[in-house]
């Protein structure tokens, strides 16, 4: 019988400041060449488990570990720091957290230097991995100028250039547009078959993966194994459709808005408007300018032309950590003091933040951080909310709660401009979809019109949301 790549037996883990274990009594083996997904509710310890497998934890967090973990047949604690990373490569949930160098080429070269790869081999390995990942045109690009989706691809290239035996992926498609996500999964499928990689991924959006995984290790909310079974392709999260209720008054009017950064044009002049109570989704390919538009509207990027007239807006960025100002989640949500204690308590309960209300905002999972940022903006009672990928890292229950909160606030006259690649979520909450491609505005479309236009969807790397196809066809 083949020796397991990973072998856990009665493994418990907790962070030093916690009273209870994050992970409890985990026992399982993962064999070479397996494709396993770790699933479960947001905040249940999925990413923590991944970081135990690559030895990032407990060494880098002073965590308390009990039970047994063996990596390639060797006790995990017997590996020297960094030793296992020659064989196990990781793509983190937030790619920004793993970049050290300014450009794509420099980051790849830095990875090889850490592996002591001879300089004479670096050029060919960098060229090969850029070709493999479709990143050759971005070889000299500044990483921080790239979209979240492109950063995810760069992080994957940095993992693959190590020629690992195991690839650990923490929500690898969360920042990818639907078409690019499907292409990434197909590419990963071929790569795994070609090199016999062992792949372990943390994922919420299992519908796009179809039959990629062979095994599903499900954790419950308390960090225990709920099920360890053959993977069954999942259906997309189902949402009730929000009825459209628009007011005559405008919340946002954009005319000829353009944005340039360091002399490079990121947004061509574009014009559109948003009414009070309107929910508009901003969609398009990775790198098309969606996040740039939100950053320009809220003043992070200075516009290079045009005008913006808007209600007082609130902004939830792709990296929610940039918003945090306090030491406790409860204080973070209450920071603006625009909501009553009862309203704040209601927000925390509905977004499942009550159990972690006294935790530090930086100490919770990525999905929980995002819900904290969303709750803080909702508590602030701004009349226009700009949200960049609010569904990333969220389980089905969190998505349902968020959709309901958006519907309620929209009915009260609050407007939303939401960047998302989740078309199921868009179909549930949006009145319109604003399509952007290559920094230019294609147009603003009623959702039903867009779902019926397969050519327009394909040209913007989108897929019609599951469950609305028949409605779209009847509309056409």
What does this structure look like?
One of its GO terms (cellular component) is ATP-binding cassette (ABC) transporter complex. It is a peripheral membrane protein. Pfam families: ABC_tran. Belongs to the ABC transporter superfamily. This protein has 476 residues and is an alpha/beta fold. It folds into two domains: 225 residues; 142 residues. 30% of the residues lie in helices and 25% in strands. The strands form four sheets. Strands 6-7-8-3-9-10 form a six-stranded mixed β-sheet, with helices on both faces. Strands 15-16-17-13-18-19 form a six-stranded mixed β-sheet, sandwiched between helices. A four-stranded antiparallel β-sheet has the order 2-1-4-5, with helices on one face. A hairpin with an 8-residue loop joins strand 1 and strand 2. The termini are far apart. The C terminus is likely disordered.
- The low-confidence parts are 469-476
Largest sheet: 6 strands, mixed
Structural class based on helices, strands and sheet pairing: alpha/beta
What separation lies between the terminal Cα atoms?
A: 57 Å
Helical content class:
25-40%
The proportion of strand residues reads 25-35%
Taken from the alpha-carbon principal axes, the silhouette is globular
Question: Order of strands in the sheet with the most strands?
Answer: 6-7-8-3-9-10
- Radius of gyration (Å): 22 Å
- By DSSP, the count of extended strands is 19
Number of H- or I-type helical stretches: 14
Average per-residue pLDDT, rounded, comes to 90
Number of domains: 2
